[in-house]
Predict the structure.
Amino acid sequence: MLLVTAATRFEMEAFVSCCPSTAGWRSMLTGIGPVEAAVQMTAHLAQTVDPVHAVLNFGVGGAYIRSSGGADILDLCLADCEILGDLGICSGEEIEPLRGEALEVLDTFPLTCSEIEQAANLLADFDIPFHRGAFVTVNCVSASRRRGEHITRQHQAICENMEGAAIARVCRHFHLPLIELRCISNLVEDRNTQHWRLREACQRCGQVVAQVVEGLTHD
């Protein structure tokens, strides 16, 4: 069984409305933010009767502005790593990771599994362009270009979200492969929501994820 997760109802509804079959997958809402996502995921996986063989997490994200190769609004992004970006020492708009001889900190989660390669191949087969790279999970949406540039330099990341690293941590605990797909709804710049395209990004992500889920469950 493939578990398909999203943070919000409007993200999930965009996917469900495009998915013609419910065979081989089920959905759940994680809620917003890393704490709620970790709680909901853990509770669901601990209580489920039907075994889950993989998780596909999807939704919208904010793209970091890069000198080259960066994602733009309505682009698709596939994660190969999830990072807890604001677990650390905050100084102004900069965050240093927590490190030290006596500290054991899990804040980086490489995503390497055959299911990710299947998803990448499906996107290529569907002729859907996508960016692939590190995602950063934050508790607070980055609302300035300066903060975004700092995170980009520090982690070489392509976009940010608010749940992915928490879900990656839970999947690691339950030994489950994780695929994460996001559609860019906004750029990480000095905050101006008039530039955002949240509704269109939800719809595009839902459509693409429906195609990927159908491909994965019929493989």
Summary: The longest strand covers residues 54-63. The mean pLDDT is 94.
